[in-house]
Structure formats: C-alpha cells, structure tokens
Amino acid sequence: MEGMKHAPLWLRWAVPLGLALTLALCFPSQVALAARLILGGWAVAFLAGPLALTLARRLGEKRAALAAVALWALAVLAALALLAPPVAAQLTELAQGIPLLTQQALNLLQRLNRRLTSLGLPSLEAGRLASGALEGSWLGQGAARVLSGTAWVAGAVVQWLTQLGLSLMLGVYFLMDKKRLSLRLELMIPVPVRPLALRMASEAGRGLRAYLRGQALVALLVGALAALGLWIAGVRSPLALGGIVGLFNLIPYFGPLLGGVPVVLTALAQSPWTVLFSLIVLFLVQQLDGLLISPRVMSGATGLSPTAVLLGLTLGGSGWGVAGMLLALPVMLIIRICFRVWASRQETIEKPPRM
User: Fold this and answer.
1) CB–CB of 289/121 below 8 Å?
2) Could you tell me the pLDDT band of residue 280, with boundaries at 50, 70 and 90?
3) Which among 186, 199, 198, 201 is positioned nearest to 9, based on CA atoms?
4) What average pLDDT does this structure show over 38-65?
5) How far apart are CA 74 and CA 58, in angstroms?
6) Pick the residue with more confidence: 269 or 179?
7) HEC readout, the chain
8) In this structure, are residues 301 and 210 in contact, taking their beta carbons and an 8 Å threshold?
C-alpha cells in the first residue's frame, strides 16, 4: 500500500478500476447490491451534511454525524407513521378497483369496435388488450402481489428495511470520516486540474442540494393541493392520488400527464361528473404550480433550456423508465454546473489584460 502512494496516477486509477470490473463480472448481483448501499449511504450523508455541520459546533464531528442521521431518520419515520396507514389503505382500495376499471375499459373498447365496424374499419382486439392490461402489466402484477399478502411482500419489506438500515450506517460513517475520504479522493485527481475539480464538486453539491430542497417543497405543495381538490370533488382515495400527482410533478412536461392518469381512471369508475371535476382540479393545480408555486420556490434553479430538458427526459425515460425521467434533470443540472465552472475558468484564463 505504501508503494501505491508513489505510483503513477494512471496506475492508482487502473488498479481499483480493474479490480472493480473483475468483481462486477464475477459477482454481478453482489456488486450491484454494494453499489446500491454505497449510493444510499452517500445520499444520506449528502442530505444530512448541512445539519451535521451545524451540530458539529456543539457536539463534535462524530457525534454530530450520528445525531444528524438519527434526526433525519426520526423525521422520516414520523412522516411515515402519520401518512403510511391512510395512504396504504387508499392504495389498497385503488388496487382493488383495477378489475372494475379493466371491465369498464373493455366495455369502452367494445363500443369503439362496434363504431369502427359500422364505418368499415378494422376493429381492435379488445379482449387481449384488456387481459394484458390486467395480467401482463406491472400494475396488475404489483396489485396482485400486494393484495395476496404472500411472503413475497414480507420478504421485500424486510429486504428494503435491511438495505435502508445499512445505508444509514454507511451515511454515518461517511459523515464521520468525511475529511479523510475527501482527502483520498482529492489525491486521486491530477494536481493540474485538482482545484477546478474541487470547485466543480462544491458548486454541483450546492446547486443539487438547493434543487432537491425546492423540488421537494413543490411536490409537497402540489400533492397537498391536489389531494384537497380531489377530496372536494368526491374522488375516492384523494390522499394517495394527491401523493401520486405530487411525485410525478417532479418530471417536467410529462409529469402532470402521467400523474393525472390514475386520477382520471379512478374518477371514471365513479361518474362522468367526477371525471369532469377531477380534470378541473388537475388543471387548476397545474396553473397554480406554473404561475405561483414553482416560480417562487425554484426561481429558475436549473437554467436548462426546454429543448435540453425534453431531450434528457426522453433519453432517461427510454433507458430507465419513470426512474430515468426523475433522475434526468438532476444529472443534467450537475453537468451544466460543471460546464459553467469550467467555462468561467477558461474565460478568466483567456481574458486579455487591460491596457
């Protein structure tokens, strides 16, 4: 290990990267699990970092790291304790309504087929479409698993909680050992570009933290307004549907459409008037978000052009679905901040001296 300190920089990178690649090829599932845990621990340390820095003035670095992560965990558990029971009950109600929604969709397709036949056009395969929507889709499979109450659900919950606990422990360790880990990462960066890379990391972290904080507040406000409006409109499961609307609102352009689909389907199972009222609620909420909430909270935090956002969302969605669309904007924001830092440095270097 002492020899590695005096080894060339390319060798310091090549050895760990070669080892990581070998392990990924030989033990892909274990490496994927380790990557998820490390990423989760980094996310915990990233989110709890400002609080730990504030507490460190009184408690010291190690105690502050433990206290900050503990406070974050307690806040999340308190929110889950308050919201999880009603949301879970309403999600179960939504899942139980899937067969009814499927039957209504089948009836609609049959009426459409009769209309197409009368016009001399080919009909749609309504039976296969309906059965596929219920049995082949991830929604139907997920609902069946949740409603069945099998060991699969219990095992998934235990596995998720275990990984969450390990990520919290890693987050505490990352915060406690932040200086030493940061120093090791700095030594991996070539000396000529080290100041620029550190500035990029600092600016990206600050911008990403502000973006996530603003997006969380916007999603909370939009979800709360949608839940209140849907409750007034008489739509079933307004709290769960409002949460879905708020979550999908994190996706620009496509999010309101994706979040409105379960609302319309649920209202469709009640009455046409409920559908109309739910659409009015969604429209008003999006107008409030576009004209009042997002401009005041975000204040153009991303600075990305609509073309770049659409391209990023399309690429992220095609590769990783909804998760890719949710992650596309933060990744593009980090890239933009790094490019801006690099460009400002170049401008400083290339700026001609004053005469």
Assistant:
1) no
2) very high
3) 186
4) 83
5) 20
6) 179
7) CHHHHCCCHHHHHHHHHHHHHHHHHHCHHHHHHHHHHHHHHHHHHHHHHHHHHHHHHHHCHHHHHHHHHHHHHHHHHHHHHHHHHHHHHHHHHHHHCHHHHHHHHHHHHHHHHHHHHHCCCCCCCHHHHHHHHHHHCHHHHHHHHHHHCCHHHHHHHHHHHHHHHHHHHHHHHHHHCHHHHHHHHHHCCCHHHHHHHHHHHHHHHHHHHHHHHHHHHHHHHHHHHHHHHHHHHCCCCHHHHHHHHHHHCCCCCCHHHHHHHHHHHHHHCCCHHHHHHHHHHHHHHHHHHHHHHHHHHCCCCCCCCHHHHHHHHHHHHHHHHHHHHHHHHHHHHHHHHHHHHHHHHHHHHHCCCCC
8) yes
Tokens of 205: 């972290």
Distances (CA, A) of 10 to 3, 21, 24, 187, 189: 14, 16, 21, 12, 10
pLDDT at position 149 over 90: no
Residues in the chain: 355
CB 41 within 8 A of CB 174: yes
pLDDT-based confidence at 272, cuts 50/70/90? confident
Radius of gyration of the chain (CA): 25
Which positions ≥6 away from 45 have C-beta within 8 Å? 170, 171, 174, 175, 178
Token code pair at residue 139: 């929604």
Q: How far is CA 261 from CA 206, 244, 276, in A?
A: 35, 10, 13
Share of the chain above pLDDT 90, in %: 5
Please say if the pLDDT value at position 213 is more than 60: yes
CB 246 within 8 A of CB 222: yes
User: pLDDT for 214-262, tens place per residue?
Assistant: 888 888 899 999 999 999 988 888 888 888 888 888 887 778 888 888 8
* Calpha distance 145→311 (Å, rounded): 35
- Residues 344, 225: Cα–Cα separation, whole Å: 41
Q: How far apart are CA 303 and CA 207, in angstroms?
A: 11
Residue type, 317: G
CA 44 to mean position of chain CA atoms: 14
